[in-house]
């Protein structure tokens, strides 16, 4: 990691202290991704598995479509060595550090497929 990258990642997402404040020269970079299940695609795949009698065979014969899609852009955060063993709430950290333009196109299909079931 170069100096510019290190300076951008120098604050812990949990305690908001500089990574060296723990006294240990170690830290974690964690990538947080959030996905939503595509219920219709799951039902189609399960239906094919029931017809052919084998989930493994259905996996080969099926359309190989995405069964889960991202509902937000990935977020990469820094966690200091002191906080790495403490409880933390991923959703709060991801929401606070999420870029301003989250993925919107995948939210509507997931929501509509959940409403119809």
Question: Would you identify the regions where 5 or more consecutive residues have pLDDT less than 50?
Answer: 100-108
Shape verdict = elongated
What is the CA–CA distance across the termini?
47 Å
Instruction: State the order of secondary-structure elements, H for helix, E for strand.
Output: HEEHHEEHH
In the residues, how many domains can be counted?
Answer: 2
Q: What is the percent of helical residues?
A: 25-40%
Mean pLDDT: 83
Count all strands and give the number: 4
Assign the structural class, choosing from mainly alpha, mainly beta, alpha/beta, alpha+beta, or little secondary structure: alpha+beta
Strand content: 15-25%
* Main β-sheet, spatial strand arrangement: 1-4
Please count the helical segments.
5
Major sheet size, sense and barrel closure: 2 strands, antiparallel
Radius of gyration: 20 Å
* Assembly annotation: single chain
How does this model look, in words?
The chain has helices spanning 3-8, 39-52, 55-61, 90-97, 107-115; strands at 27-32, 35-37, 68-70, 75-80. The chain has 117 residues and is α+β, with helices and mostly antiparallel strands. The chain has two domains: 1-34 and 71-117, no CATH class; 35-70, no CATH class. A two-stranded antiparallel sheet has the order 1-4. A two-stranded antiparallel sheet has the order 2-3. Helix 2 (39-52) crosses helix 3. The longest helix has 14 residues, at 39-52.
């Amino acid at each position: 990691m170069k100096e510019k990258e290190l300076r951008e990642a120098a604050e812990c997402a949990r305690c908001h202290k500089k990574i060296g404040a723990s006294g240990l020269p170690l830290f974690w970079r964690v990538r947080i991704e959030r996905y939503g299940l595509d219920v219709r695609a799951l039902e189609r795949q399960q239906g094919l598995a029931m017809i052919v009698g084998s989930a493994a065979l259905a996996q080969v014969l099926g359309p190989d479509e995405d069964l889960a899609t991202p509902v937000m852009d990935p977020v990469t955060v820094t966690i200091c060595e002191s906080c790495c063993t403490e409880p933390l709430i991923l959703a709060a950290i991801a929401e606070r550090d999420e870029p301003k333009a989250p993925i919107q196109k995948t939210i509507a299909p997931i929501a509509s497929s959940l409403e119809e079931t």
